[in-house]
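Re: beginner question about structure tokens

> Can someone show what the tokenized structure looks like for a real chain? I only ever see the sequence side.

Sure, here's an example I had lying around. Input first:
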Amino acid sequence: MLDEALDLFLGSRCVGCDRPGRMLCPPCRSGLSDRAAPAWPTPTPAGLVTPWATESYDGAVRALVVGHKDRGQWGHRRVLGELLAVSVLAAVASLDPRLPVLLVPVPSRPGAGRQRGYEATTALVRAAAARVRRTREVVVAPLVVSRGAVDQAGLDARGRAANVHLSMHCPTPLLGRLARRHREAYVVVCDDVVTTGATAREAQRALQAVGLPPVAVAAVAATRRRSTDR
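And the corresponding structure tokens:
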């Protein structure tokens, strides 16, 4: 009855099976993974820390990510946040649980957040943090900012790497506040999708440059080119 009512008043359909009603019906929701695995892109950017992802970037997951990032479908944030949380927890599972985890969202290109009306990745990471916080201390720290990359769509691995090279930095005042509150912590770079790894690697470089080396990258999904072998 609820699905029928939603379809009647909103005209919505499931992004997974096209069933009228909720934008992700219960059967499609229950079919999403609850385990994350290393998601190495091919080729792998030199020095990239282990990237983790919970899903493949296709089907319903791709529709959820695109809807959340580009179409203002903010309701997808909760589901995507839960998938990201699975990746974060897998990434830090073997690390000291007494130390906090700093989740650093990969920044949007300049102006993208204003066009959308909100910072999509940061919103997603905050949703993930709410889930991770049930088992360990976690802080969302938007430390990295972008200063000049263009839209990555249509670029190959080499083009993406060149596009984001030296495009990110960490503002000093943010680092000062962080240092006063958390002298020891595990840093995890967070994004919605791992494609070539170029964006995550650039965020990692910017953090390493200020003495905050990430221990891992966590994402909702990875493209099919991924492999469990490095």
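Each token stands for a local structural state, so reading them left to right follows the chain. Residues 13 and 19 are 5 Å apart (CA to CA).
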